[in-house]
Amino acid sequence: MRNLLLSVLLMMACSTTTSSTEANTDTNHASDRGAINAMIADRFIAGWNNHDAHLFASAFAEDADFTNVRGVSVSGRESIETFHAQAFEKLFMHSHQTAELKKIRFVNPNIAIVDARWEMTGAVSAEGLPIPYRTGLLALVCTSSAGRWVITVMHNIDLTTAGAPSSRK
User: Fold this and answer.
1) Dist CA 45 CA 97 (whole Å)
2) Over the stretch 121-130, which tens digit does the pLDDT of each residue have?
3) Is there a contact between 119 and 135 (Cβ–Cβ < 8 Å)?
């Protein structure tokens, strides 16, 4: 009987410790989710919509890797800024973008994998022709140092409407 009582007390103590740890983890992640959301809204999206390449690039780590929807890649915050400054001068001069975070998965306390859906209007082609509404997916690896979240790797995916599948007989 004594062993049973000790076992029950030990299980209760472990479950209390686990619950407390899970609550702390949830609280930490809630704060990190908010910080990631703010980084996307206040630097990435605000930079885009203000056509401010410097503000946009501030969302990225110094050694970040960026790949756009066409597969063009640049590395480093400074290169990302230069790349977007040129794009904001013509292709995206009047564009407006929104983003909605769909999923954040924490690999560890300082690394998060983020999926965000984006929508854009106002872009033009290299020939200056209006590009209709676009939507896509941002696949991001975000990292935190001293509580500041940045994008370390970004892959941008253009989601286009696929035609109806052909029926095979």
Assistant:
1) 7
2) 999 988 999 9
3) yes
The number of beta carbons lying within 10 Å of the beta carbon of residue 76 is 16
**Of 18 and 42, more confident:** 42
Domains and CATH numbers, the chain: 24-158 (3.10.450.50)
Between residues 11 and 150, which one has the greater pLDDT? 150
Distance (Å, whole) CA 94 – CA 159: 21
Contact in structure between 97 and 119 (CB atoms under 8 Å): yes
Residue 44 is encoded by which pair of tokens? Answer: 């990435």
Nearest to 118 by CA among 129, 105, 133, 104: 133
SS3 at position 152: strand
- What is the rounded (10 degree) CA torsion for 33, 45, 154, 75? -130
CA 8 to chain centre: 44
First to last CA, the chain: 71
Average pLDDT in the chain: 84
